Prior knowledge:
By secondary structure, the protein is mainly α. It contains 3 helices and no strands.
Amino acid sequence: AFVDHYNHQRYHESLNNVTPxxxxxxxxxxxxxxREKIKRKTLEARRLHHSQRAA
Length: 55
């Protein structure tokens, strides 16, 4: 039970906050790309919202 949790559910900071299973099965790059895409969209939305409130 612990090993399954450790390898499949627990995010590891040293692995860019993905699970060891994600790294092992090669899913880490897609996960990190998706996170970066979400981050860019969020920052863009925040800038737009802030500029609208400031005007």
